[in-house]
Amino acid sequence: MGDAPTAPPYGCGDGARDPDEECDDGNVVPGDGCSGVCTIEPNIICPNEYPCGIRNICGNGVLSSPPEWCDDANVDDGDGCSGECYVEQGYWCRVPGKACEPRHVCGDGVVEPTEQCDDGNRVFGDGCYENCLLQAGFACSGSPSQCHPTTCGDGKLEGDEACDDANAVAGDGCSPECVEECDDCCGNGVLEDGEPCEDGNHRDGDGCTADCMPEDGYLCFGDEVGFSCRVLCGDGQVGPGEECDDGVELGGYNQCEPGCVLGPRCGDGVVQPEYETCDDGVNQNHYGGCSPACTPGPRCGDGFTQRPEETCDDMLNDGRYGTCAPGCVLGPHCGDGIVNGSEQCDTGGEDTACCVRCMEANCLR
Q1: What is 108-162 written as a DSSP string?
Q2: Measured between alpha carbons, how far is 296 from 234 in angstroms, rounded to an integer?
Q3: What is the pLDDT, as a whole number, of residue 253?
């Protein structure tokens, strides 16, 4: 369109796209997809039928970031990448076009399927272990977990108690330690013939089921004197107390470290320069923060108008006429109430009989 205009080109803003216009949305205000000089703003598509809209196709398996922060080749919610291409809580989406993976973080206050509890910290001795397994002598419920000590003999069956008959009398079927007193029964803490495992309780999810059967992902060992189960780290299955288990545990980026805890990754609050450009440990697309993909989140200069923080963003934001100015505010334009450049008039609002799109019109004065 030649030299940069200093007033709306003839016909710009009348709602009819002329041959020398890229768009015409019926106004001369920048920041709405079609600039104040009738050029299409960045990351925008302007069809013949207005208004203009953001140019992206969520669900095509190609990451267009921003405004997409993931793209798993579908628009389904609940699979890690939402129908609007945002990373959902509890997932990480490492490869565009591929399925997102569950991300279990012990200590985030969210009880995941592989956790017995999660009280929002990794402090030892508060009822929920630092690996999110239930501590003996405690009961935990809710998300984040609220934990409290159990009292054997209070008549409430809680935590790792196998029984609780509201007394501390031995020989009545429930011991003073809340272990079942019986011969040849599951849950009494004594490994007997026909029992593959025996951990002294009737709770699933700890390696030995309520029916004294071993659970997948655990290694159980012991004899009639004592028996215990522990999660089998390195088997490629994420079990209780494990944040991850890739079967390798090498500790590389987005890999598991020995002990089945998460290694360096997006979301740990440390920028890994080889893989990330931003990581504030939150990565929830807050304005001026980081995205779930550990790239800069919404910000002035990204070419997307983030309201209410911005009124205009064309990536350059250099204050040319009809475009955006530094700080992502509107630059000089027709309708700002100031006669700029080659404007002949500016009413600061609606056209009048004497001033139409900032050009003087024939009228009776």
Answers
A1: SS---TT-S---SS--TTSSB-TTSPBPTTEEEETTTTEEEE--TTSS---TT-S
A2: 34
A3: 87
Bridge partners of 102, per DSSP, are 91
One-letter amino acid at 137 equals: G
Question: Which is nearest to 90 in space by CA: 123, 63, 118, 67?
Answer: 118
346 DSSP 8-state letter? -
Q: Is 36 in contact with 6 (CB distance < 8 Å)? A: no
Output the 3-class SS for 42-102: CCEECCCCCCCEECCCCCCCCCCCCCCCCCCCCCCCCCCECCCCCECCCEECCCCCCCCEE
Is the separation of the CB atoms in 153 and 178 below 8 Å? yes
Could you give the CA distance from residue 268 to residue 72 in angstroms, rounded to a whole number? Answer: 23
Query: How many Cβ atoms sit within 10 Å of the Cβ of residue 311?
Result: 18
| 333 touches 339 (CB < 8 A) | no
Q: Cis omega (within 30 of 0) on the bond before 308?
A: yes
Amino acid 1: pLDDT:
44
- What the block records as the tokens of 297 is 């989140």
Q: What separation in angstroms does the CA of 359 have from each of 9, 10, 26, 349, 363?
A: 10, 9, 16, 13, 12
Q: Which two tokens stand for residue 348?
A: 């600061």
| 264 upstream amide cis, omega within 30 of 0 | no
Give the tokens for residue 39: 């050029």
Q: From residue 295, give the alpha-carbon distance in Å to each of 72, 157, 289.
A: 18, 49, 9
Residues 119-144 as b or e (16 or more Cβ within 10 Å = b)? beeeeeebbbbbbbbbbeebbbeeeb
Ranges of residues in the chain whose predicted pLDDT is under 70: 1-3, 49-50, 54-56, 64-67, 223-226, 364-365
Percentage above 70 pLDDT, the chain? 95
The model's pLDDT over 269-308, given as tens digits with 9 standing for 90+, comes to 999 999 899 999 888 778 899 887 788 888 999 888 888 8
